[in-house]
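Show me a record, fold above all:
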Amino acid sequence: MAVSFNGVDYLHIDSLFTPEELLVRQSTRQFVAGRLMPIIRECWREGRFPHEIVPELGKMGYLGANLEGYGCAGMSNVEYGLVMQELERCDSGIRSFVSVQGALVMYPILAYGSPEQRERWLPRLQSGAATGCFGLTEPGFGSNPAGMLTRAHREGDEWVIDGEKTWITNGSVADVAVVWARTDQGIRGFLIERGTPGFAASDIHGKLSMRASVTSSLTMTGCRLPESAMLPGAQGLKGPLGCLSQARFGIGWGAVGAAMDCYETARQYTILRKQFDGKPIASHQLVQEKLAWMITEITKAQLLAVHTGRLKDQGKLEPAHISMLKRNNVATALECARLSRDLLGANGIVDEYPVMRHLCNLETVKTYEGTEHVHTLVIGERVTGISAYK
């Protein structure tokens, strides 16, 4: 069923946006409707990311959208958030590609890299001429990156890296990997180019979620890098965690888009679907209760996203704020997907409708870049002053 989408705005939230922000959202909405929606179902079925759109994403200014210089669009963080919202309204895999490229690859190169690293990589990554990935998670250490086993040591003028990373978006297609390793100087970041001896990537197959996304494992075996491959401005966990804060912000906005798509699909379906007495099922109390819950929670998620975006633009947003954004909005989107699947009945499980696809994707979004449990503890530490991680 083709669902027309004119936005979800119960509480006149559009009044909170500037004309420039609304223009960014509208142009992204048109790009999603005209270019991405027509191909996403086949990409999901085939389990492939549509690489052909990457140059177009660069041309639209979506790659590194809220960064400055090197061809980047220099959008505000609210504008960037609206882009993430519209892209994930199509599919989490599309938003994830853009989020990784900008927040987890371009951002660390801009924030921590040398002038030479920035000049070499940022223009190519922004245009889509090159793709990057972010290697932090390991097979034995997901929520606890401080336990990483990947190590780098010096041999003469070179660094030698050994270790493994997994659940890496874009891993096997990346031209450059931002890989974090333990050294005698603490945790450092390195840029590893495709084709470097001792560096290999292999895709993870059998996924029932994020099927329109490339997910890989990276292996470094005696991987030798020049000194110039190290990110000079990042030392310790603060480096990679700073990148994750950038990405989690985009996830919090993106989840709103997925929730909107599920809600609007269910709303239109229940108005058209007739049952029992020949009336639309939207006329029944239990159906209206579910729709009322969804629109209320989506509205709250929108307000949380807008306010955190304003705080970020003012330089006042803290990691604990982002934890609330990510935790709340992903949980809201996941429940909206479940309720929408219920309202569609048997039709909710077929890919003619986007709901089950969003539901499967959001199970991953709930887990990656900080599980719901981890973000709960971040918030708990913020309000009590007591860490409960161990």
Notes: The mean pLDDT is 96.
